[in-house]
Specification:
The complex is a heterodimer of chains A (252) and B (316).
Chain A lengths: L15 H6 L13 H11 L3 H7 L1 H8 L10 H9 E8 L2 E8 L4 H8 L18 E4 L2 E4 L12 E3 L12 H8 L9 H16 L18 H7 L10 H12 L4
Parallel strand pairs in A: 1-5
Antiparallel strand pairs in A: 1-2, 3-4, 3-5
Helix pairs in contact in A: 7-10
Chain B lengths: L4 E4 L3 H10 L3 E4 L5 H6 L7 E4 L8 E3 L5 E4 L4 H6 L1 H6 L1 H8 L4 H6 L2 H6 L5 H4 L41 H7 L3 E5 L5 E5 H4 L18 E7 L6 E7 L10 E7 L5 E6 L19 H8 L12 H17 L1
Classes of the chains: A alpha+beta (252), B alpha+beta (316).
């Protein structure tokens, strides 16, 4: 209970995965005190007993089902050798080489290691679309793929869509048409929307395409169906479809 | 997720061998189902063999006038292939009726065939499930079963196969080509690929340990009108309560397979002799021996009505 009489939500405790990542070398440091750094310190200050245990080599071995003596070089060294990988990702035009636990998803690599926190973690199970990024030009859920599976791939996140200070046309259209309210799903919505128009241009059919042999058109029905993997709890769908229609060059 | 080691295989045989000799190893391709299950510790592989470099991502014409679809062809690429859209429309339709655009861009042909059930009790690790923990019991029986199987189920498991794509492949009589760790290959009719639950619901296909799907082949085109009709709780991005894949000829004869009602795509060839007599006659034979629960008995009339809608669409 705080002075003002409210019970506050505690900062989320790190998951086992995230606690494991603390052993790794730090990623590039952003300049100045960022919100991320502040949050990280707050979380570290309140590190739970379970997370501390997860950092101990003995506990890590127990986690693997192995006795401590199973690792001559020490638990951490063994776990590090078998369960880490060096991954090079080209993200928004810059190459990054990271040593990652094999369990790190592409989403967590972007957010936790490269500090590209525009891409959001929503459900973390591929159901909400908040984590949508473009990999080699194709939209995917970055939460349902491992960073190690993308060695050598080219990734575009919401941070990479604008050209300098000039917004991507889809970003500008979302602002113009009020295609968001709280904004949490917006980076995923915009990345998905950009890819949807490319998919229509490439002739990829959807569930609402009448004639499979004709070229699909960016109609309102097509846009809505193709965006069904991006959930917006604020319900900005109608405005998102209008923004997309404008960029596609037709009225929603 | 539990820790795991990771490797990328260079050839199909190498991949098969790696999984066969490494206890706890699994293949990973798109990963859209496996990683979901790993995060929930329903799947806990200790080693992953990534098959993305196996060059199995092409769709080729076969000498028999059909298509050979590489195991790693994405769901999007398969649905969008010009030959598939033109000659195997039911397959394109089934694929785009499933999942979301993002998932279809990553999910593969072989992975789609191997995806696990979405039974909520399979997903809830606090509950017994014979599929997840053999011998622990089935929580769905006597539980909430609106989505579950109405036919072909057993006292050990009433889960359904969630795939849309597989229902279309069943109606097209596809074959699943595989390579085994010793290098031998075989082609399994899709009808025999998925198993009914019986007393071993955790064994879902006839694949052997380490056996890797390399391709799915389609026989020469059937002509006719291709329809995939999916009935679900939302208009998009939801699993089927009932789905019907059909290829119907001008004279009203044809083939039909049903999804959402069994542990595998459900097709009864003998029922197709009644195609010209209407949906009721076909459904009666298709669903002979059905054993629904109180929650999902609605699926039986729903199959007949969906079939009637499909037949009407084909006539139109």
């Amino acid at each position: 209970m705080h002075d003002d009489g409210y019970e506050y939500f505690a900062p989320p405790e790190p998951t086992t995965d995230e606690a494991g990542q603390r052993d790794e070398p730090p990623g590039p440091t952003p300049i100045g005190p960022t919100r991320r750094a502040f949050l990280a310190q707050t979380v570290a200050g309140g590190l739970s007993l379970a997370a501390l245990e997860a950092l101990a080599p003995e506990a890590a071995l127990a986690h693997l089902g192995l006795p401590p003596e199973a690792a001559p070089g020490g638990g951490e060294a063994m776990a590090a050798a078998e369960h880490t990988a060096r991954v090079t990702l080209s993200v928004n035009g810059s190459a990054h080489t990271l040593d990652l636990d094999t369990r790190v998803t592409l989403l967590d690599a972007l957010r936790e290691r490269l500090q590209l926190t525009g891409t959001k973690k929503g459900c973390d199970h591929g159901q909400c679309g908040a984590c949508t990024v473009l990999v080699n030009g194709t939209r995917i859920n970055s939460c349902l793929t491992l960073a190690v599976m993308h060695d050598g791939d080219t990734i575009t996140t919401i941070e990479g869509l604008a050209t300098g200070d000039e917004l991507h046309p889809m970003q500008a259209a979302f602002i113009k048409h009020d295609g968001y309210q709280c904004g949490y799903c917006t980076p995923g919505q915009i990345c998905s929307a950009v890819a949807v128009l490319d998919e229509i241009k490439a002739g990829i059919p959807s569930h609402v395409t009448d004639d499979l042999t004709a070229r699909p058109q960016p109609t309102n029905m097509e846009l809505r169906e193709r965006m069904s993997g991006n959930i917006c709890r604020c319900g900005a769908y109608a405005n998102i479809a209008e923004a997309m229609a404008e960029v596609a060059g037709r009225r929603a | 997720m539990k820790p795991f080691s990771y490797e990328r295989a260079k050839t199909p045989r190498e991949a098969a061998g790696a999984v066969a000799r490494t206890p706890g190893a699994k293949f990973i391709a798109g990963g859209t189902n496996l990683l979901d299950l790993m995060k929930l510790q329903i799947e806990t592989p200790t080693h992953l063999v990534d098959v993305q470099d196996l060059k199995l991502d092409q769709i080729e014409s076969t000498a028999g006038g059909g298509l050979r679809i590489g195991a790693l062809v994405t769901n999007t690429a398969l649905a969008a292939d010009e030959r598939v859209r033109r000659d195997y429309g039911v397959l394109s339709r089934a694929i785009v009726a499933g999942a979301s655009g993002q998932l279809r861009n990553k999910a593969t042909t072989a992975g789609n065939l191997l995806q696990r059930t979405r039974c909520p009790y399979f997903y809830d690790t606090a509950m017994p499930c014979n599929k997840r923990v053999p011998g622990s019991g089935c929580s769905a029986i006597g539980g909430y079963t609106r989505q579950h199987a109405v036919i072909g189920s057993s006292d050990a498991c009433i889960a359904t196969n969630p795939s849309d794509m597989a229902v279309a492949m069943r109606v097209l009589d596809a074959k699943v080509e595989t390579v085994r760790p010793n290098g031998s290959t075989r082609a399994l009719p899709i009808a025999d690929f998925h198993r009914l639950p019986g007393r071993t619901p955790h064994i879902e296909t006839v694949l052997e340990r380490g056996e890797l799907i390399t391709a799915v082949t389609l026989p020469r085109p059937l002509g006719g009108t291709h329809v995939y009709h999916k009935v679900r709780d939302r208009a998009s991005y939801a699993f089927a309560l009932v789905s019907v894949a059909a290829v119907i000829q001008r004279d009203g004869s044809g083939r039909v397979a049903v999804g959402g009602i069994a542990h595998k795509p459900w097709r009864v060839e003998a029922a197709e002799a009644h195609m010209r007599s209407g949906a009721k006659a076909v459904a009666q034979q298709l669903l002979a021996g059905a054993r629904p629960t109180r929650d999902n008995a609605f699926k039986l009339p729903l199959v007949e009505r969906t079939l009637a809608a499909v037949m009407a669409e084909a006539r139109a």
